[in-house]
Amino acid sequence: MPKKQKTKRLPKDKFFEKVEGLGEALTFDDVRLKSGYSEVMPDDVNLESKFSRNISLKIPIASAAMDTVTEHKMAIEIAKLGGIGIIHKNLTPERQAQEICKVKYYLNGLIDKPICVNQNETIDEILKMREKREYGFHTFPVINDIGEIVGIITRNDFDFCDDSSVRARDIMTKSVITADSKTGLEEVYKIMFDKKKKALPLVDKNGKVAGMYVLKDVKRVLLKNPSGYNLDTKGQLRTGAAIGVNDFERLERIIGKNVDVVVIDTAHADTKSVINTLKKIKSGYKIDVVVGNVSEPESAKRLADAGADGIKVGQGPGSICTTRIIAGIGSPQVSAVYKCSKVADEYGIPICADGGLKNSGDIPIAIGAGASSVMMGGMLAGTKESPGETVFKDGRQWKSYRGMGSIGAMETNKGSRERYGQIAAGKSELIAEGVEGLKPYKGELKDVIFQYIGGLKRGMGYVGAGDIESLRRKADFMKITSAGKAESHPHDILITKEPPNYQVGN
After folding, report:
1. What's the pTM?
2. Per-residue pLDDT for 505 more than 70?
3. Is residue 419 annotated as part of the catalytic site, yes or no?
4. Domain boundaries, the chain
């Protein structure tokens, strides 16, 4: 059982204890952070945080494991911005593994399992394979029938090949430069620079491919990642993936693709089946496991005791979720995050606040309440990188967005039915806990995240918190009335031009 740690009393404790004593629970529109003396400039704050015990973030944002939010395009872009994307499980295990590969192979620090082609394959076969798997690269080590490297094919070889029926051996570079599999990164860079090679395969003592480096990624890693990408120890983008209860076939596949973190994704994580699944994973695999969702401290404690590396908090706060209305359960999100974080802090486990956010100002509120990161669904749906086609309606661009507990999601996907405990139900027997709808098209993710992070930074400046942990520790709250909420928004004016970080009606 994980060892508990001592935690000290925080400024917000008195506030939330008073609220709880009145039998109340609060959400984002009910509270505001207190401002205070500050020597912190917003642009100087450090946003590094944790998604789980061993998985770090450059920005405290994760994209939700929803089929209208996170597949490889979203996961790639949010990792490039410093966060992490959790690829949903409304996919076959094979397809989910492919999505992970697309993220992990987007950047290639050390490619420990490079995609090789046989010398007898035709160029047409290789190109079709590349297109089918949606690989973003054109460099392939070429091997013979017993797995020995005999050459390499690069973009130049493809570009200057006018007959796709020829075989790899006919166009490959035969005098391929290689290095020993134990060669260090700086030596790899020297070899590539001296030999003017953009790719360097690593080979073992038997002449078989043991890995490969790509020049642009080697340079980026050696330069200490100036771009702020969220990378693993091999220089590849971090990503996570959702699994269900006893979903061990899926687990094996995604771990085999070097997924960074596994999320046991259920509507109610405080159950015997979820806890047993968590224990089995932690006893048999070396990987961080985040578990959700819960909303009560007793639930968080049971997950922590079972070995969770992170806990997702939120039952029913999402904009497309109807769980609270249909089932009558769920604690308002800010109070839920606070109560669960008090328990999680005793175990050194990060909390991810999942759902309920509407504006950038909700992010510092969630973190101030005790979260180490926030998970976004609706706030990222509608971006260019979210799955689904863009449609036109009423003169505007829209993208589809649906709850994983919606009828549409559950009718077509086993993963959604499992998440809501309805795996055996027929289509006519499904009980929806979500809705389907449209979100206004928001453009590119980087522009959207820029605004969200800007709001977080400014909130930290007002509190005087130079980093995420300081915000968690220094934050204090006040409860506001409905009049205070109304006063928070623009009023007594007809808005003629919306800024990019505020929409009328939020």
Report:
1. 0.83
2. no
3. yes
4. 11-106+229-388+442-488, 110-220
CATH of range 110-220; options 3.10.580.10, 3.40.50.300, 3.90.70.10, 3.60.15.10:
3.10.580.10
Percent of the chain with pLDDT over 70: 94
Catalytic residue among 32, 238, 419, 472: 419
Beta strands in 67-174 (DSSP E): 84-87, 110-111, 117-118, 140-143, 149-153
> Strands 351-354 and 310-313: what pairing?
parallel
If one counts every other C-beta atom within 10 angstroms of the C-beta of residue 147, the result is 12
Check 321, 340, 402, 472 and give the catalytic one.
Answer: 321
Catalytic-residue membership of 321? yes
Q: Radius of gyration over alpha carbons of the chain, in Å?
A: 25
Pair 222, 244: CB distance under 8 Å = no
Task: Name the packing angle between helices 248-255 and 93-104 (round to 10°).
Answer: 20
Q: Which fold has domain 11-106+229-388+442-488?
A: TIM Barrel (3.20.20)
Burial of 39 (0-12, 13-18, 19+ CB in 10 A): exposed
Q: In degrees rounded to 5, what are phi and psi of residue 162?
A: -100, 10
